[in-house]
RNA sequence: GGUCCGGUCGUCUAGCGGUUAGGAUGCUGCCCUUUCACGGCGGAGGUCGCGGGUUCAAAUCCCGUCCGGACUACCA
């Protein structure tokens, strides 16, 4: 039988890296087995629905290259793939009726207040929390009829079997046993007639032929409810795969205080989708051996349940940065220029960098400058990008890193001036620089190098450092950056002269 | 309170009864070198949570214990 898995997000918030990793695992698993990955929207709780999130889910998934062969936005024979629509079609009504008829579900008429009281009582008396039958599990048909006749609101609860052991075979953890008496009677249909996750997801998983229920480990404790549901219907249980979650550096659940966690924020921050994918695939899963840097195809090829980790992992930004720098270095300058330009122009990029949290970083001006420079002098931009790509970690950094190439008057770092324009030979050096390149049409890195070296030699300098540094400050305003000769050649004689003259005014 | 899950360098992990416990990242030293990076070569960092067993032999198997986490909603 071919593998069928589903990614079933709830449109209550933009997907964070944990959600996306969940989706990635399913994509890899489905691809590996040439199976089907299904996208299903779990929007049964209308009160928590946030407009626009469905779009963000799709956008995140598309950006990451996570594919669906079936489901929301992809079509298929098991639709609709939005649970609210399935509810309208009466799918859940039909199946809850079956459950009721078989005695595996019952109506419960407690009010919210009564339930609160019950929980309070349980807490005070140190009893197990939860609804284990209440007033209605064993109510007589007459009592139920009377309550209905009185127009009381009700929910439909699962009648968990008593005094039995429910065994879950988890693909990662193996056999997990539960005493059914410790599992409460979950609400299957709420007071509005909407199915809850416990019911809708399991019915859909069966109807959609899901073979593996892959989900976060936070679901382990409700697995017995789900298993019991499948048993009650007489359906074959899918294989449960409870994946480890991703935590923040402090070992706690990922949240805003860990910085960016939304998938799309990583895009806006300048990370490559493949970096994020490769990186998060390795949290909670390993291909065995020492493999780390892998293409999407390699990940698909290598992915198996056996490599899944039982313990939660921590999201390590340092390693993400390293990996992004690595992949950035593998791109050609023209590929990078294209990416940076798209990146600079994307609305989400500006939105991200204008946020208060990023107010201290000036990223957009450089990005925009690079973009407009590319329109007039693509060659310069490509050379600039090529020279900077080995010292940059994200797309966002290219703007600022390359800025001095395109600025008419790149700002001087005061400390750089202090240090290198104060040397006794600075003036003469810059004047000679002007003389050498004035009126020259073009120059190669070799031309620049020979100028610097011979200048050092004729001025009896043992090393070229004292010649290079003042020149660098004159050319870029900074003390750090690409190799001087390459950078000068990219700038060209005209700019070299102009900048040398400008620097002379600073001495 | 209850149920369940988890535990190898700071972090991600390899390991599946016999290894000097390996790799990556981060930190760090050296080399390269015009700076910063990149790259190359080293180093520090793990009593495999702890305590018992089983075994000639345990990170690997068993038990206990501690610590961490999840769930315990008419949310997912």
Would you give an account of this structure?
- With 507 residues, the protein is mainly alpha-helical.
- It folds into four domains: 4-72 and 246-317, 3-Layer(aba) Sandwich (Rossmann fold), CATH 3.40.50.620; 90-243, Rossmann fold; 331-406, no CATH class; 414-504, Arc Repressor Mutant, subunit A.
- The chain is 48% helix and 9% strand.
- The protein has helices at residues 17-32, 53-64, 83-88, 91-101, 112-124, 141-149, 197-207, 223-233, 263-268, 273-281, 296-302, 317-329, 333-345, 347-353, 364-376, 378-388, 396-406, 414-420, 426-437, 445-458, 465-476, 484-491, 493-504; strands spanning 4-7, 36-39, 70-71, 105-108, 155-158, 165-170, 174-179, 187-189, 212-216, 239-243, 246-247, 313-314.
- The strands form five sheets. The protein has a three-stranded parallel β-sheet with strand order 1-2-3.
- Strand 1, helix 1 (17-32) and strand 2 form a beta-alpha-beta unit.
- The chain binds one RNA strand of 76 nucleotides through helix 5, strand 5, strand 7, helix 7 and strand 12.
Please count the helical segments.
23
Rg from C-alpha positions? 32 Å
Number of domains: 4
Alpha-beta classification: mainly alpha
The rounded distance between the terminal residues' Cα atoms is 78 Å
What is the count of β-strands? 12
The oligomeric state of the chains shown is single chain
| Rough outline | elongated
* Largest beta-sheet characterization: 3 strands, parallel
Query: Which second-level CATH architecture of the largest domain applies?
Result: 3-Layer(aba) Sandwich
Average pLDDT works out at 96
Superfamily (CATH H level) name of the largest domain = HUPs
- Order of strands, widest sheet: 1-2-3
Strand content: 5-15%
């Amino acid at each position: 039988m071919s593998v069928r898995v589903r990614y079933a997000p709830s449109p209550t918030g933009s997907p964070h890296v944990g959600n996306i990793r969940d989706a990635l695992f399913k994509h890899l698993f489905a691809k590996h087995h040439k199976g089907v990955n299904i996208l299903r929207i779990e929007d049964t709780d209308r009160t928590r629905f946030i407009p626009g999130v469905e779009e963000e889910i799709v956008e995140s998934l598309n950006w990451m290259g996570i594919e669906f062969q079936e489901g929301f936005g992809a079509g298929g024979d098991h639709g609709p793939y939005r649970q609210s629509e399935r509810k309208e079609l009466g799918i859940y009504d039909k199946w809850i009726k079956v459950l009721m008829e078989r005695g595996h579900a019952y109506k419960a008429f407690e009010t919210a207040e009564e339930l609160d009281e019950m929980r309070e009582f349980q807490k005070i008396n140190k009893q197990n929390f939860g609804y284990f039958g209440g007033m209605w599990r064993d109510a007589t048909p007459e009592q139920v009829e009377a309550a209905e006749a009185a127009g009381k609101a009700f929910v439909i609860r699962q009648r968990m079997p008593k005094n039995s052991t429910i065994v879950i075979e988890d693909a990662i953890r193996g056999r997990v046993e539960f005493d059914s008496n410790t599992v409460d009677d979950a609400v299957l249909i709420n007071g509005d007639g909407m199915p809850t996750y416990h019911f809708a997801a399991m019915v859909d998983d069966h109807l959609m032929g899901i073979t593996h229920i892959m989900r976060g480990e936070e679901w382990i404790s409700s697995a017995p409810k789900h298993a019991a549901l499948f048993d009650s219907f007489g359906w074959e249980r899918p294989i449960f795969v409870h994946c480890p979650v991703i935590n923040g550096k402090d070992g706690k659940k990922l949240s805003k205080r860990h910085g960016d966690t939304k998938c799309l924020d990583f895009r806006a921050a300048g990370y490559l989708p493949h970096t994020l994918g490769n990186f998060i695939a390795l949290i909670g899963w390993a291909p065995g051996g020492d493999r780390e840097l892998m293409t999407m195809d390699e990940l698909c090829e290598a992915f198996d349940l056996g490599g899944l980790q039982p313990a939660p992992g921590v999201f390590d930004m340092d390693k993400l940065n390293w990996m992004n720098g690595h992949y950035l270095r593998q791109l050609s300058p023209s590929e990078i220029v294209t990416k940076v330009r798209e990146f600079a122009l994307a609305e989400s990029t500006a939105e991200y960098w204008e946020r208060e949290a990023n107010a201290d970083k000036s990223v957009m001006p450089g990005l925009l400058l690079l973009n407009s420079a590319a329109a007039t002098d693509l060659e310069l931009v490509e050379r600039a990008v090529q020279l900077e790509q080995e010292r940059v970690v994200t797309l966002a950094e290219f703007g600022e890193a390359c800025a001095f190439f395109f600025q008419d008057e790149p700002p001087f770092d005061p400390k750089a001036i202090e240090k290198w324009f104060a040397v006794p030979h600075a003036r003469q050096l810059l004047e000679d620089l002007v003389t050498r390149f004035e009126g020259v049409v073009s120059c190669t890195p070799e031309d620049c190098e020979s100028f610097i070296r011979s200048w050092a030699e004729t001025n009896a300098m043992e090393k070229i450092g004292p010649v290079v540094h003042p020149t660098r400050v004159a050319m870029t305003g900074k003390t750090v950056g690409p190799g001087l000769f390459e950078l000068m050649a990219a700038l060209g004689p005209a700019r070299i002269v102009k900048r040398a003259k400008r620097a002379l005014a600073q001495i």
